């Protein structure tokens, strides 16, 4: 299964990897407002929330609190590659739990992998702007460009820090981690496989994840007593 390299392929990845959680009512936060996810899933109900475009709910997550959504409203809430953009990450995370009735599908990037670009002096190449001018010289969401960028990551954390965040918050907020998935733990080339084996052997599993895994994914399941009785 191909992982993803764009918003469109990420939608397909979510459907293939987590489709069993997407049959009831689904809210996709940061979905883009064009409902491309519906090419790959057929839920009973599907809404998108975003700050841009033409979503069903146009909301600035950093400014709208609480979110204009009733508690336990959706069976599944999707929030992928969103939290790291928010100043109010912790507050919004709690809102995801509040508005979900069963599951929350989350992904966050491992910012530490951007350090490799600095070490290798590989400048950013992409459609977000000119390296060092519109975006960071070596990475899109970090660095110090000459112009104020349109979007930035507000948080710099590693893969294992993200993993720890969701594990240690589980008891306090009434959920369990149903599934976890890492992007980048496996390599397609021999060189990549050898590099991962060496780091794992010399420095341990956590160091390997922090150096090579680009994103942390998890599925959170709310405890039964936290759910609505009328939920599916």
Structure, explained:
- The protein is an alpha/beta fold and 232 residues long.
- It has a domain at 7-110 and 157-186 and 214-226: 3-Layer(aba) Sandwich (Rossmann fold).
- The chain has 7 helices and 7 strands.
- Strands 3-2-1-4-5-7-6 form a 7-stranded mixed beta sheet.
- Strand 4 (74-80), helix 2 (89-99) and strand 5 form a beta-alpha-beta unit.
- Helix 6 crosses helix 7 (205-212).
- The chain is globular and about 55 Å long.
CATH superfamily of one domain: Vaccinia Virus protein VP39
Count of alpha and pi helical runs: 7
> Would you tell me which CATH topology of one domain applies?
Rossmann fold
CATH class membership of one domain: Alpha Beta
Task: Label the CATH architecture of one domain.
Answer: 3-Layer(aba) Sandwich
Strand order of the largest sheet: 3-2-1-4-5-7-6
Could you give the count of β-strands?
Answer: 7
| Separation of the first and last Cα atoms | 29 Å
Report the sheet with the most strands, covering strand number, pairing sense and barrel closure.
7 strands, mixed
| Succession of helices and strands | HEEEEHEHHHEHHE
Strand content: 15-25%
Mean pLDDT rating: 93
Shape: globular
């Amino acid at each position: 299964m191909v992982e993803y390299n764009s918003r469109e392929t990420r939608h397909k990845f979510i459907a293939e990897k987590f489709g069993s959680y997407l049959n009831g009512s689904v809210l996709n936060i940061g979905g883009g407002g064009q409902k491309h996810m519906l090419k790959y899933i057929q839920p009973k109900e599907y809404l998108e929330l975003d700050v841009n475009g033409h979503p069903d709910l146009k909301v600035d997550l950093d400014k709208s609190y609480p979110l204009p959504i009733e508690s336990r409203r959706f069976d599944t809430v999707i929030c992928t590659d969103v939290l790291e953009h928010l100043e109010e990450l912790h507050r919004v995370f709690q809102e995801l739990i509040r508005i979900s009735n069963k599951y929350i599908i989350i992904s966050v990037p491992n910012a530490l992998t951007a350090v490799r670009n600095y070490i290798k002096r590989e400048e950013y190449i992409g459609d977000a702007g000119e390296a060092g001018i519109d975006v960071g010289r070596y990475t899109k969401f970090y660095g110090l460009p000459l112009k104020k960028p349109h979007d930035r990551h507000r948080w710099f954390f590693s893969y294992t820090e993200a993993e720890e965040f969701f594990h240690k918050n589980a008891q306090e907020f009434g959920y369990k981690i149903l599934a976890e998935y890492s992007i980048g733990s496996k390599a397609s080339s021999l060189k990549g496989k050898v590099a991962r084996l060496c780091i794992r052997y010399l420095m341990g599993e956590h160091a390997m994840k922090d150096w090579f895994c680009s994103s942390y994914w998890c599925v959170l399941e709310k405890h039964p007593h936290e759910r609505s009785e009328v939920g599916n």
